[in-house]
Write a structure and sequence with these properties.
Length: 184
């Protein structure tokens, strides 16, 4: 049984979060190990397993990105490893990654040569702006594609979602690299 079925939810990406929370709380009360304190060992073990599975389902489905990742896995579209993921990232994004890494190297060099923080931090802030814009664009695309998946269940939409998620991961890593440089 998958997480959606376990919570009696449709396999959708846009969930009614109030309904989701209500279902989680009801099942949590039903399976909580405290209610099985005096039960037979097999029942206690089953309660622990169901409670643990429920918590995994909750953590996965409450977050829109992990929900998409989980659905991709269920539908057999999750990337099989870093090699496959890197093959599916558009060349334009990889060029941006390369350019940003060069910029980060230049900033590190500036910083190590004693440049004032406002100089190299300004460069980092400038480098962050287009990446932030790309992140916002991807978030909007993810929302639009999620709505299309919910309406149609079309596998091609799910493939587009997978591609956007892969790109999003690169973008998040780029922003994390800039953040690390700003805080070092």
């Amino acid at each position: 049984m998958d997480f959606f079925a376990f919570l009696s939810l449709p396999r959708k990406l846009n969930l009614d979060m109030a309904d989701f929370e209500q279902r989680y709380r009801a099942l949590s009360r039903q399976f909580h190990p405290d209610y099985f304190y005096n039960a037979a060992p097999a029942e206690r073990r089953a309660s622990l397993e169901k409670s643990s599975y429920l918590n995994d389902a909750y953590r996965t489905l409450r977050n829109p990105i992990s929900r998409v990742d989980y659905l991709l896995k269920l539908e057999g579209l999750a990337p099989q490893g870093p090699e496959q993921a890197s093959k599916q990232v558009p060349a334009g994004l990889l060029e941006e990654v390369f350019a940003l890494n060069e910029e980060l190297d230049d900033v590190r060099e500036q910083r190590s040569s004693g440049a004032p923080p406002d100089v190299w931090k300004g460069r980092l802030e400038q480098a962050r702006r287009p990446i932030e814009a790309k992140r916002a664009e991807h978030e909007a695309q993810l929302q639009e594609l999620s709505a299309r998946w919910d309406a149609t269940g079309d596998r091609q939409v799910l493939e587009l979602l997978r591609d956007r998620i892969l790109e999003r991961n690169y973008i998040i890593n780029l922003l994390a690299g800039i953040e690390r440089e700003l805080n070092s």
